[in-house]
Design a protein that fits this description.
Elements (H helix, E strand, L loop, with lengths): L1 H23 L4 H7 L3 H33 L3 H25 L4 H22 L1
Length: 126
């Protein structure tokens, strides 16, 4: 189970990084290069990206809260929070991939760590 929690913690870090990109540095040249947007596109979508970044932050917080709850002995609560947060990360990645096949790489970065963490954690619970 611990290995799964470590992996989902890494997924939370990825989503925290996405929050920073989308909500804090969206219009910078470096972030525009990551997302392949022009300065004009970034300016036009800034408010949307800001909001979307917070969704990523909330998913990361949910997973971290689950890990903390698990570590403090509230195992069922911790597992529930981790599964809800990691499951949402996976599903958000699936939606991204299905909605735009050119974003498959980004979607896999978003969905594989939490998926692997849930699988490894689930095996650890057996």
């Amino acid at each position: 189970m611990i290995a799964g929690l470590v992996i989902v913690a890494l997924a939370a870090l990825v989503h925290l990084y996405i929050f920073v990109l989308e909500s804090l540095t969206w219009t910078t040249a470096r972030t525009r290069a990551v997302f392949g947007t022009s300065a004009e596109q970034a300016a036009q979508t800034r408010q949307l990206a800001f909001n979307q970044g917070f969704y990523n932050l909330f998913l990361a917080v949910e997973v971290v809260a689950g890990i903390v709850a698990f570590a403090l002995g509230a195992v069922p609560v911790g597992i529930a929070l981790v599964l809800a947060g990691a499951g949402s990360m996976v599903l958000a990645g699936v939606v991204l991939m299905v909605s735009d096949a050119t974003k498959t790489r980004a979607a896999l970065i978003q969905l594989l760590p939490p998926l692997i963490g849930v699988i490894v954690g689930g095996i650890g619970l057996l």
